[in-house]
Amino acid sequence: MKRYFYSAALGAVLINACACAADTAVEKKEEVPPVAVQAPVVEQKKENPKPADEITAADFRRAVQTAVRNMMRSGTLDAGTDRYTVTVSHIVDTTKKGFDTAEIKRRVAAELAAGRKVRVVTAGTKNAAPQMNVSGRVTQRTAYVRGGKKRQEYYLQLVLTDLKTGMMLWETVTPVVRKK
């Protein structure tokens, strides 16, 4: 019986202590001034700007323009009265950047067509068999500059091949330079 009485008394003391603690907590909450709630700010997604030395599509456009104009001026595509039929087969990207080779291929074909010295056809055309083929490669080179720093350089290599003989008629390597 003594034990039961002692447990009941201890329980009553604990209940009163908890009630007092709850009352003081309620009293403290009432003393806290109300805080104004602000609406959450939604951050707009911003595209990460490319570093100043990063190569862009515009840089490749300029390199393709330069390479194709050099091809036109070389006289390799002069056919007299008739125009050669040319196809652009493939552009290979050997860099670690993963440049858009389909866009480069379209640019080469567009520049060749704009020059009006050749007729540009797609590879599967049945009506006009191509006489020449333009293929290319994008390469990367690491150059070491003053102070031991590294600089990545990119080049566009275009090759013009006669499809009947397989002879390489013209080749150029054009640097892809970041315009400042």
Q: How is this structure best summarized?
A:
By secondary structure, the protein is of the alpha/beta class.
Describe the model:
Helices cover 34% and strands 27% of the residues. The chain has 180 residues and is α/β, with parallel strands linked by helices. It has a domain at 57-176: Rossmann fold (3-Layer(aba) Sandwich), CATH 3.40.50. A five-stranded mixed β-sheet has the order 2-1-3-4-5, covered by helices on one side. The radius of gyration is 37 Å and the shape is elongated.
Distance between the termini: 95 Å
> Roughly what fraction of the amino acids lie in strands?
25-35%
Give the CATH level 1 class of the domain at 57-176.
Answer: Alpha Beta
User: Which fold name is given in CATH as the topology of the domain at 57-176?
Assistant: Rossmann fold
What would CATH call the homologous superfamily of the domain at 57-176?
A: ABC-type transport auxiliary lipoprotein component
Number of strands: 5
Low-confidence runs (pLDDT<50, min 5 residues)? 1-6
Secondary structure blueprint with pairings:
Elements: H1 2-31, H2 57-73, E1 84-93, H3 101-115, E2 118-121, E3 132-144, E4 150-162, E5 168-176
Parallel strand pairs: 1-2, 1-3
Antiparallel strand pairs: 3-4, 4-5
What are its keywords?
Rossmann fold; alpha/beta; 180 residues; disordered N terminus; 3 helices; 5-stranded mixed beta sheet; elongated; 34% helix
